[in-house]
Write a structure and sequence with these properties.
heterodimer, A: 310 residues, alpha+beta, Arc Repressor Mutant, subunit A, SH3 type barrels, 5-stranded antiparallel beta sheet, 4-stranded antiparallel beta sheet, 10 helices, 14 strands, 41% helix, elongated, B: Arc Repressor Mutant, subunit A
Chain lengths: 310, 313
Amino acid sequence: MSDNVVKEKKYNDACIKLFEFLKMLYDGEVDYKWVIDHFSDGNYDGTSNTHVTLNKYLNAMKIFGIRVKKVQNKYILQSPLYKIDFTNNDIKSIVSLKNASKLLPKGKYKASFDKFVHDLEIRFDESAQNSMEIFENAINSNLKFNNTDITKQIQLCEKYCRENHKLEIIYNDETGNEYNLLCSPVEVTYVKRKVCLKALGNNGNRVYEIPIELIKSIKQLPSSSSTKGLPMTVLFRIKGRLALNYKMRDDERLEQLEADGSKLIVNKNEDLNNLLKRLMRYGTQCEIISPKFLREEMMELINKTLSNYQ
Amino acid sequence: MKEFVKSQKVTYNLMSFTGFKALLIFDMLTEGPKSFDEISDIIENHPYLREKISTDTMRVYMNSLKRFGCEIKRVKGEDKISRYVITKHPFELNLSDEEIKSVVKVCKILAKQADAKDLIYMYKLFEKIATYTNSEDLINVMRNVLMLKGISIEILEDLIVCCDKKQQIVIRYNSPKSGVKDIEIISDGIEINNGKIYLAGFGFEYMQDAIFEVSRIKQIVEIKDSKTIPQKNTITVTYELETTTKKLELGQDEKLIKIEGNKAVIEITSSNEFLLRQKFLELGSLCRIISPDKFKNDFIETLKDMKAVYCVG
């Protein structure tokens, strides 16, 4: 055992090298060349016995229970020194997250997420590794995006959002009426069990969230969405029991609390058709203040509903 | 190595004893505090080592681990013996801000599709990850993303069990209208709606189906041994719905009477008129209530009142 002295504290250099090698394995595949250079302090000339020493360290790791595989001159960690105890339910959640991540477009989010999963998987014990294999094969989730056709459409929409060109979309509403929309794509969103393409309309920056399954065709136009416009802001008042119980959505904020307990809420970035339906539910306890055209749309919707009874 | 597999005997030619001891000491000290004597005993009795190591050698190992990046602390127990423990080391899980952002993004996708059990499993996974990482905010962010803010996980877990068994329970509920009170219900299910988690069931207070925000449930006061069969005051409403037949999805309390062209006639039974009225308001002009007259007329009055709000404003 060769010891070194730093500030009068002795340490073992080979021991540190072994742990540094292990740390490299935690971060990913490690080249044989890096390893041999590491253990020989960069002095390996092919004749020294560093490779014999390396084998001894690899055997020590193996006998200790750390599995390292060598594939095409790269070392890969298969069973680590330091593990985290994951339950079967943890593994199920990780598998679900992995499935959902398939929808992320290639880029920094996808790379960061893949690193997160790698960081967890590298700390699995043998039982967790087995469970992972079983759940990955067995989980036939009922998530819509596990359907191949939908997945392709989602990925296409993600691509349109990235490329940021204007789109011409033909889609149906829930009663089968067909619409033609000229818009700028924003993002793919997940509303309840529906996957939607969120877009800003060309006129007035109205927000649309169109269920992908209702889209008949998308044509990408040559003109880019120049500067992305700000989504429309909607102001509405809630009162009574609703005001007491109301939980604001992600894109909402409280504008004002009034003396009688009423609340003025600012909403932005929500599909206006969905917002209208939601505010209809609240009946007389809710009133749209602005924009004027949405107030009028609400009025029209109430009148149209009333006309069913005349 | 083949020789070892056969004989289970370890020689200096086979492996690095220094490496093996370093791994063993790291393992022991991450497991919990150990004194020099305890470490020495374990090494001496280890089937592959069987050797004594001096206190000085042990210090060299500890210095090496420190130099690698381990944080080793000395603790003294009631027996006044110094013990050593690794409190931090480079193999710990460390999540970067980018990783956390990407995980939040994926969780947002999943949360919209998950049921309450899945949300709890995911929350517990991140609770565990948070204990292994330096990302203190992670768990707070996840509570929000997974719609569990302000919710006691233990209560939610118990409610899921009660709902599975359709048990009659008494909950202590912080009602926005009337404050904290005990409510007796027959639990039926956990629903997620508009980013909130609700307990659905039959409430004995108003003798009707009801939903209760789980974040307002402070305690399950009692789980009854037997169940009362409630005399439900239900209402059956017949309505016409404009729809494309392939998209028609009926609720569990609904019955399809007939379909003519793009119109379906449906019957729905509920004990909660308020929830029914909300349903029909949301459907708006796509639906027309046919009967009963009283419910229909009340609904029309509500619409007229709503119209008045906009006419006056």
